[in-house]
Amino acid sequence: MPGENKILYGIGVSPGFAIGRACLVNKKKVKAQKHIFLQKEDISKEVERFKKAVLMAVNDLEQVKTLIPEKYREQSHIVDAYILLAKDIMIYDTTCSKIMDENINAEWALLKCIEDIREMFANIDDDYLKSRIHDVKYVSEHIMNNLTGKEEQSLEKLNGRYIIVADDLSPIDTARLHVGETMAFITSLGGKTSHTAIVARAFEIPAIVGLENVIQEINDNELLILDGATGMVIVDPDSDTLQKYYEQQERFEAYSARIVRESHLPAETTDHYRINVMANVELLEEVVSVIDRGAEGIGLYRTEFLYMNNKELPSEDELYSDYREIAEIIYPKINTIRTLDIGGDKFAAHLFPDTETNPAMGLRAIRFCLRERGIFKTQLRAILRASSICKNINLMFPMISGVNEIRQAKSVLEEVKNDLRQENQPFDEDMKIGLLIEVPSAMVIADLLAREVDFFSIGTNDLIQYSLAIDRVNKNVAHLYDPLHPAVLRMIRQIVDAGHNQGIPVTICGEMAGEPMYVPILLGLGLDGLSMNPFSVPRVKKIIRQISMAQAKLFLDDISLLSTASDVNKYLLENVVPLFPDDFPTYKVSSILD
Question: What spatial distance separates the first Cα and last Cα of the chain, rounded to whole Å?
Fold first, then answer.
């Protein structure tokens, strides 16, 4: 019987091809025991029972760290984050308080606690932070299993080569997998910024997330073809399709090995235009990947992690230690540190209990920092102190909407510098200061802002969202989010021109920078740098080395005459992609079944 060739699409989060049998992992949610109101004499015992369940979860997580292969041991920080989360006031103290204040059993109290956290996270607009609710759910389910005595399915005991199919996998589940035997995985839940996706990329396991109802769509032991770049899964492929994908897989693996070997070559066009290709990171442990894949520095270091994974605000010394270590590891390359892009609604509830109905346009990023001067100054002190070590740190302020904001931010920075001078604390007096352009008002007055700073970085993720009035995580309008919209391209050009007229460099640090098909456009726009996920760096650098700046400008001239994003996309597929036959295998593969 010929294969069915059923095609499913999810979100590709870790590139690579896998061809193998499905192994369904059915991680059923544990049901709490019935709601119980306690007698007063039983409350302290119930609190102790909950604390014991948390301790068991922490011990289990510590055991998981020992299962991570030595090659990937730097990823153990994610397990550490789970351990901190299990003991965090959001879960630990709140649940204990509910048991004592409401006289209810631990299971019921934990469920109520998680529901409160879920509501809090629902108001968060930032993709990365919003996805942390999956981590909270995993940790709480682990604790609940200990309370109810339910044993989890042990993934490390699975044997054989397989493609894991599950509703969800936590990073801990991923760490438990046999990295050498697990071919890939597919889940119903998750997104590009989830910890599970980060672990998949770190382990270089092809992965697709967000494929709804995947457990119902795929049968156990069914033959699958998975493309971790495009998010496509072919279920029950016929022999011809199978053969074509085996050939494609072989070419892709050879290509991937080659571009990593070549990744330390400069990103220079055939007519000698040099552009900096850098990496975005949010965790110290990612810096090794930045170096291994030939990135020419860190174009964006997100600093929110230390604030989101501690019971208390991090101290100046904790921040200093983190910033110093990254600067030392990446030296002599530049590390561009973005100050807190976070709002009160995104901190742990016990620190900042205020909520907002529209946090995306509320008190966040530089607005939050200018109001909470103490938090802001602590971070600035840590950054300045770290800058003295290698003198390779740049400072960048997020979500600047006007000249007054950047002047206020610089004024606070100058206050901190004066304090450090009085304390005889060294710092880099020549540290460069930049800002992120990610709201339309900043784009419109980019010429005025350029007089205030040493460099621009364009945060295309938010700039596109705000300019097109599209919530990227709203499934009803997410399809309208398009970096190729002519308005977006015109905005980038205006920002680049404003920066260059003032003699300052302009970089893009949004997801757009890491899309290989967009590289000729971004070159034509005259950008000085691109910053992206470290895994995108080798491929982007290779494409840059194969094109001339003159050719890129001709492409841009043609594209500037087009009226719609779909027209621009069609132009790129017809005129740009064919020039790089080895670099766009996914575009060729997608036509196999057409």
Answer: 21
Indicate which residue of 96, 195, 390, 485 is catalytic.
195
How many domains are contained in the chain? Answer: 3
Q: Is 509 a known active-site residue?
A: yes
| pTM of this structure | 0.73
253 and 297, same domain (yes or no): no
500 is catalytic: no
Residue 1 forms part of a structural domain: no
Task: Provide the β-strand partners of residue 37.
Answer: 104
The domain in which residue 77 lies consists of 40-148
Q: How many angstroms separate the CA atoms of 163 and 249, rounded?
A: 15
Same domain as 555, residue 472:
yes
389 shares its domain with 461: yes
What is the rounded average pLDDT for all residues in the chain? 85
Output the CA–CA distances (angstroms, integers) from residue 419 to 33, 86, 310, 316, 415, in the order listed. 57, 38, 27, 14, 6
Residue 238 reports pLDDT greater than 50: yes
pLDDT digits (tens, 9 = 90+) for 314-337: 999 999 999 999 999 999 999 999
- Looking at the fold, whether 313 and 212 belong to one and the same domain comes out as no
In which band, very low, low, confident or very high, does the pLDDT at 62 lie, cut at 50, 70 and 90?
Answer: confident
Candidates 173, 174, 181; CA nearest to 152 is 173
Report helix, strand and coil shares of the chain as percent, to nearest 5: 50, 15, 35
Report how far residue 297's alpha carbon sits from residue 333's, in angstroms, rounded to the nearest whole number.
5
Where a domain ends, among 148, 171, 188? 148
